[in-house]
TrEMBL record:
<keyword id="KW-0520">NAD</keyword>
<dbReference type="InterPro" id="IPR055170">
    <property type="entry name" value="GFO_IDH_MocA-like_dom"/>
</dbReference>
<dbReference type="InterPro" id="IPR000683">
    <property type="entry name" value="Gfo/Idh/MocA-like_OxRdtase_N"/>
</dbReference>
<dbReference type="InterPro" id="IPR036291">
    <property type="entry name" value="NAD(P)-bd_dom_sf"/>
</dbReference>
<dbReference type="InterPro" id="IPR050463">
    <property type="entry name" value="Gfo/Idh/MocA_oxidrdct_glycsds"/>
</dbReference>
<dbReference type="Pfam" id="PF01408">
    <property type="entry name" value="GFO_IDH_MocA"/>
</dbReference>
<keyword id="KW-0560">Oxidoreductase</keyword>
<feature type="domain" description="Gfo/Idh/MocA-like oxidoreductase N-terminal">
    <location>
        <begin position="6"/>
        <end position="121"/>
    </location>
</feature>
<dbReference type="Pfam" id="PF22725">
    <property type="entry name" value="GFO_IDH_MocA_C3"/>
</dbReference>
<protein>
    <submittedName>
        <fullName>Gfo/Idh/MocA family oxidoreductase</fullName>
    </submittedName>
</protein>
<feature type="domain" description="GFO/IDH/MocA-like oxidoreductase">
    <location>
        <begin position="131"/>
        <end position="265"/>
    </location>
</feature>
Length: 376
């Protein structure tokens, strides 16, 4: 058996708890150092999870035992931090989105290719048992030929829980750029690459107010559309309609329904790793009111081990050792960003926008993938 792979983390904010909890429990990796602009924050997280070293960014980049660095900074600096990681000769796993513009994101991927280094991009929720079981069900023909999907993400907005939510309403954020990666990634796993998008959007208010934490009461600007309705056409013929809104008192999110010729598959929230999966079958005969509409709903058994954030990095680590491609590639993450930016452009222009990038076949996680096994 080889040794676990050395991992570093840059960015010790809100989401770092989930990564640290999981990565410190996966035997195939060892978290060796955490860095942040706010060094005390990095030290606090290191102490909490028993990580040996913590401090500034250079401490992580200069550590010769670290092969791969997790970029948990805010979207506006994702590319800058990922490029610094690559320049230090290390592979990158970055939180989503890959970046906030096409040119710098592509440049970063090209640097990685030139250096023979890998880039992996969140979300890895779609590598969890939920979406992966759904993919297998569709491949088996359980819903016949997939036709279209409907997705919904609507609620009042992240300032209700996030102590520093301004970045979620800045360029690179908003319900589209912040939450779109989950829904678009799930749809691309099912339907393949996106061909074109059309969308309308609105910005309900120019500013919002922090609700929790030390900054509560502080106003911050809204730079992006806070509600976006999207039509998506996939290269291979499927289509989807999607709502992204942080203006809705009604909380309805995590809805992904995929309709095929023989059934409608309801899959778990793509911002989670799993949950109930069902197929609704067509009615055998018309139901006349007041008789209740009762449809046949079949449960699909979810296969795979539920873990959490860090799953994609683990697939990447194991794939590097095995010399095979990992699933959540930089090119996949770029195609998702390209799609989201094309949606923004359609909101501006009112026209259908062709998505310029594409990807080859999307990989899958096998049902017997066990994050808690020592495999290296
Ligand atoms: N919070 C969530 O629920 C959540 C969920 C999934 C994904 N994400 C993603 O994770 C990332 C981080 O989100 P968060 O909520 O933890 O944000 P956060 O603001 O709580 O934390 C970000 C951290 O990065 C540090 N940082 C910023 N710029 C830096 C730089 N140049 N070098 C080093 N450190 C730097 C900050 O000091 C901060 O500690 C984002 O990309 C977000 O999209 C967040």
């Amino acid at each position: 058996m080889g040794a676990p792979v050395g991992v570093g983390i840059i960015g010790a904010g809100n989401i770092s708890d989930q990564y640290l909890r999981n990565l410190t429990a996966f035997p195939d990796v060892r978290v060796l150092a955490i860095g942040d602009l706010l060094e005390d924050r990095a030290r606090e997280q290191a102490a909490k999870y028993g990580v040996p070293r913590a401090g500034g960014v250079d401490l992580v980049l200069g550590d010769p035992d670290i092969e791969i660095v997790v970029n948990l900074t805010i979207p506006a600096v994702h590319v800058e931090v990922s490029e610094a990681i690559l320049a230090a000769g290390k592979h990158v796993w970055t939180e989503k989105p890959i970046g906030v513009d096409r040119a710098s994101s592509l440049r970063m991927l090209e640097k990685a290719d030139a250096a023979g280094l890998r880039v992996g991009v969140a979300p890895d929720t779609v590598l969890g048992p939920g979406v992966q079981t759904a993919k297998r069900a569709i491949a088996r023909g359980d819903i016949g030929r997939p036709l279209f999907a409907q997705t919904t993400f609507q609620w009042q907005g992240p300032e209700i829980f996030h102590p520093n939510p301004a970045f979620l309403y800045a360029v690179g954020g908003g319900p589209l750029l912040d939450m779109g990666p989950y829904y678009v990634s799930a749809l691309v796993h099912v339907f393949g690459p996106v061909a074109a998008v059309a969308a309308v959007g609105l910005r309900a208010t120019d500013s919002r107010v922090v609700q929790v934490g030390p900054l509560a009461g502080q106003e911050f600007p809204v730079e992006i559309p806070s509600t976006v309705s999207v039509l998506t056409q996939f290269e291979q013929g499927g289509q989807a309609s999607s709502l992204y809104s942080t203006d809705s008192p009604l909380l309805r999110q995590g809805i992904v329904e995929i309709t095929g010729t023989e059934g409608t598959l309801v899959i778990p929230d793509p911002n989670t790793f799993g949950g109930p999966i069902t197929i609704t079958r067509p009615l055998a005969e018309m139901i006349v009111p007041p008789a209740p509409v009762v449809q046949e709903i079949v449960e699909v058994e979810q296969e795979g081990v539920l873990a959490g954030r860090g799953l994609g990095l683990l697939d990447m680590v194991r794939s590097i050792r095995a010399g095979r491609p990992h699933v959540a590639t930089g090119r996949f993450g770029y195609h998702v960003l390209d799609t989201l930016l094309s949606i923004e452009e359609s909101v501006e222009s009112g026209a259908f926008v062709p998505v310029q990038s594409t990807i080859d076949a999307v990989g899958s996680i096998p049902a017997d993938f066990d994050p808690y096994a020592a495999t290296l």
